[in-house]
Amino acid sequence: MAQESFPVASSISAMGDTLFEGGHHSSTLKLVFDSMSEGFGLLAPDFTIIELNSEALRIDGRKREAVIGRSHWIAYPGSEQSEVGRLYKKVMSDRVPATIEHEHLWPDGRRSWFETRVFPVSNGGIAVFFRDETESHQARERLRASEHRFGAAMSAIDGVLWTNDSVGEMVGEQPGWAALTGQAFDDYQRYGWSTAVHPDDAEPTMRAWEAAVAARAPFVFEHRVRRHDGVWRRFAVRALPVFDRVDNISEWVGVHHDITDDRAARELIARNTETFTSLITSNPFGIYVVNADFHLIQISLGAQTVFSGITPLIGRRFDEVISIVWQDPFASEVIARFHHTLETGEPYVSFS
User: Fold this and answer.
1) 290-299 pLDDT, tens digit each
2) What mean pLDDT is reported for the chain?
3) Residue 9 pLDDT
4) pLDDT tens digit string along 20-35?
5) Less packed terminus of the chain by CB within 10 Å, N or C?
6) 3-class SS of residue 340
7) Which residues pair with 232 in a beta bridge?
8) Long-range own/partner contacts, residues 177-185 (CB < 8 A, 24 or more apart)
């Protein structure tokens, strides 16, 4: 609970006394309080509601005579043991101003959030100011929920998340980058992160990054990064600018994805494919390869004499090629055998 300064509390106390006493000054002050955008009320030492301004009555939704002159605990059932009720009692007892943000459940089931400030007045009562913070509270809740969803989404990403400020500099805590590289907080701030990039890749990375920032365009790159254990790993990098409502960049969000193993696997597949292709094309026996779409994609050296004179050959439908080389019924049988093997995976062997 935050305490107000003594001069403010004294002024509230004096205004409360004037309203309690009535008269010309009371009428003038009531006009002032009715023009306020905050709800205002005065409670007597026994918690009888002495006064409510127009905003308080609007928030309450009842007519003045249904509330004024009644005990607060009767006018608002359940409030005596609530958080705000305990606050009223404390201020009434201790004579010390206090502030609280609290939830209020209306009889119709609605929930509202209020910021309530309570001041003691010198005749023993209290003055209460309250402001409806429901919209702001809900906005904060939506923001927190959005941040949680963002965090969950980022956790599901197979990569290392990092952010940079609007001008492309790394600032603040970056737990993902720190865990990857082992760099301390001060090491990766601004452009310090680049010292974890391979020396041969650092300058090209910086040039490409600065160009993307200047163009306000997505950043896509690959480079090597020294992992926390000293091992160099290759990463695919992608970063996007985040724009605010007036089209200014508020920050950059990026992800490093380790592609070292994927790259090694692709290179191995490429080498194996090259080896397989070489074995096929140079083989003296008759070998030909038909893909799943039933197109001829490769023939061996030994098969070239069988298909000589057929143009085009590679990439052509296999049934067309076979129909040129052989006549029915043999051609149709060959075509059917190939179709069966492609569809079922069952091999066919003939020694005839």
Assistant:
1) 898 999 988 8
2) 86
3) 45
4) 455 555 677 777 778 8
5) C
6) helix
7) 226
8) 177/256, 179/228, 180/225, 180/227, 180/228, 180/256, 181/225, 181/226, 181/227, 181/228, 182/227, 182/228, 182/229
Tokens representing residue 292 in the block: 């799943």
CA 55 to chain centre: 38
DSSP letter string over 173-189?
--HHHHHHH---HHHHT
What are the structure tokens assigned to 20, written together? 């309690």
Buried b (16+ CB within 10 A) or exposed e, 296-324: beebbeebeeebeeeeeeeebebbebbee
206 and 192 Cβ atoms separated by less than 8 Å: no
What pLDDT band is residue 5 in, cutting at 50, 70 and 90? very low
Count the helices and strands in the chain (H runs, E runs).
12, 11
User: Do 288 and 299 form a contact (C-beta atoms < 8 A)?
Assistant: yes
Per the CB < 8 A criterion, the answer to whether 191 and 169 are in contact is yes
* 3 DSSP 8-state letter: P
Residue with tokens 């002159």: 69
Query: Rounded to whole angstroms, what are the CA distances from 258 to 1, 69, 164, 198, 238?
Result: 50, 72, 20, 14, 12
Is the peptide bond between 284 and the residue preceding it cis, with omega within 30 degrees of 0?
no
Rounded-to-integer distance, Cα 225 and Cα 315, Å: 42
Cα-Cα-Cα-Cα dihedral of 136, 140, 145, 149, to 10°? Answer: 120
* pLDDT tens-digit readout, 142-182: 878 766 766 665 555 668 999 999 999 999 999 999 999 99
pLDDT tier, 4 (very low <50, low <70, confident <90, very high otherwise): very low
- Residues 190, 131: Cα–Cα separation, whole Å: 42
Q: Hey, is 160 helix, strand or coil?
A: strand
- Which tokens go with 156? 């599901």
Q: How far is CA 87 from the centre of its chain?
A: 38
Compute, in degrees rounded to 10, the torsion defined by CA atoms 313, 319, 322, 323: -110
Q: Name the 3-class secondary structure at 84.
A: helix
- Cα–Cα–Cα angle for 155, 157, 158, nearest 5°? 115
